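Q: Hi! First time doing this. I have a protein sequence and I read that you can turn it into a structure. Is that right? Here it is:
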Amino acid sequence: MSTAQARPGARLQAGLLFALACPAVYAATYSLPPPPRFDTVPQLDEALDQLRKMSWALYSDALAQPDSRGRTIAQDVNQWLLSPDHEERLAALRARAQSQSAAADSAALQATLGEAATRVQQERCFAAVLAGYWRYRELLARHEARLQALKERLPQDEPAARQRRIAPLVMRWAGALTAAMSADSLSAEEVAVEELTRTTEQLFSAYNEERGELASSLSTQERAQGKAPLTQTRQTPCQEPHPQTSGSPKPKLAVNNRALEEVYPASSKHALFEGRTVVDASVSANGCAEQAAVYQSSGVEELDDAALRWTLQAHFLPGERDHQAVTGVVRFAVKFVLSAPLSYQGWSP
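A: Yes, that's right. Below is the predicted 3D structure, encoded as structure tokens:
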């Protein structure tokens, strides 16, 4: 899209574009917009005007930092959205439709408007894909910042090995974007977007895994150094004593606990942060968690905090010794995962 064609007064909120590309689900997705239907030339004109507004909104977006290809969002818009040949084809269809409307040739008009709808749909898909890619690029920067912060605290980390694992996925992601933006038909676009979605999910999964490994190493290092772990203490009265025990000296989680989904921070979901926090829970003889401490961090502070809060609200079966309920400590992992049911599980090193 040439800047001469853009209309500065028609800037849209970037959030609307992101909603088009990525609906309110907490997973990587590029949702293509529904196909339009035109019955009149003014409807086509309105759709073309919306396309130019969408293109300008992306072009003037604040995401100015280049991506792994060394490109900016403005360069992508100029290359792929409403390119001169696309504009020429749409203008020719519009002129033909206007002539057929004036001649009251209804059958020919509907055929032309149908062809125009297909072209408009393809441009909308391109806009949705670009909006999604660059918003995911913005989220990926948060993952990169978390990784970098952990690396700086781990002098023994090997960034070269880490980069070798991630770099191929970044290249595949960029290649999948090019394929999606080069599709010459809607069916080809759908296939390309499926691949783009898969590579996006794989890339975020890789970053989550790398961060988890670094966070685990850092937790081990800090325990060896005697650093106090992140801890929360119960501030509310304990519930009534649990009628059962765990049947062993150690307490264990009961089965009637609230879903982890309820404490999964919305900001972590939006940023596609997943993670596993290993928690030590100090459980009283009545099955009440009196204190919770992070044994192994997820590398995301708000996930660790949510895991501790969930632990202090959880129900436990207290430990048992000589047929009497006793206090004890239980260690377990709290897993925050977007693409699968959230769960907690027994922990082992």
